[in-house]
Specification:
Elements lengths: L2 H13 L8 E2 L1 H8 L3 H14 L2 E4 L3 E4 L4 H25 L2 H19 L3 H19 L2 H11 L15 H17 L3 H19 L9
Antiparallel strand pairs: 1-3, 2-3
Helix pairs in contact: 1-3, 2-3, 4-6, 4-7, 4-8, 4-9, 5-6, 5-8, 8-9
Length: about 210
């Protein structure tokens, strides 16, 4: 295996949450896992540091970088701008088949929420956003969003767990989808930005403990 394979494997493990924030990345263990020399591991770790996914401290080695709430809020604010753009472009580029796909995805999310399956609904929300980016066909925005989203794995489920947020999230996604299907770029961009900024506001609020 090459340094590229190690890089891709570690990156995937970090962005999917398999590796946790602050988890140590020991070169010897990684080399054994991927059956490569330590030079390939070091090359992969340098790239991950450049991506902002790993941090390296002198005499302490490498670890998965923890993205704090303040930085996550900034990322969501930037996402609001970029995803607003992709929603606009999606409304401009929408095909009939893509419109049907968006309707089906929104209906599936609604069904999951009705069933109380918040975790799967959150995953489907992420997929819906990815489909909108794909419909938009804006490669630069898509690439930037992929980089930003890789830092948010520990926050993907946090907002939907906030009391009342799941219902609001569905309403916001419905507004986005309806605007895109109506092929109204202004409304689509506005709805997407409103949704992302609502997520930003929710992120700043603590999740209250469950009531016994």
């Amino acid at each position: 295996m090459s340094a590229e394979t190690v890089y891709e494997g570690l990156r995937r493990a970090i962005v999917t949450g398999e590796m946790h924030p602050n988890e140590r990345l020991v070169e010897t263990e990684i080399a054994e896992r991927f059956a490569v020399g330590r030079s390939a591991v070091r090359t992969a770790l340098v790239r991950l540091v450049q991506d902002g996914l790993v941090e390296h401290e002198r005499n302490r080695g490498a670890r998965v970088r923890l993205v704090g709430a303040h930085e996550a809020t900034e990322i969501y604010e930037v996402r609001a701008l970029l995803e607003g753009l992709t929603a606009r472009k999606a409304a401009e580029n929408l095909s009939d088949s893509a419109a049907e796909d968006l309707r089906a995805r929104l209906a599936a999310i609604g069904a999951l929420l009705e069933a109380g399956d918040l975790m799967t609904a959150s995953e489907r929300n992420v997929e819906l956003h990815a489909v909108i980016v794909e419909i938009a066909g804006h490669d630069t925005a898509g690439r930037l969003l992929a980089g930003l989203n890789s830092h948010l794995v520990r926050y993907h489920y946090r907002t939907i767990l906030h009391p009342g947020r799941a219902k609001l999230s569905y309403q916001e996604h419905a507004a986005i989808v309806e605007a895109i299907i109506a092929r109204d770029p202004d409304a689509a961009e506005s709805a997407m930005r409103a949704h992302m900024l609502a997520l930003t506001a929710t992120l700043a609020e603590p999740i209250p403990p469950p009531i016994d």
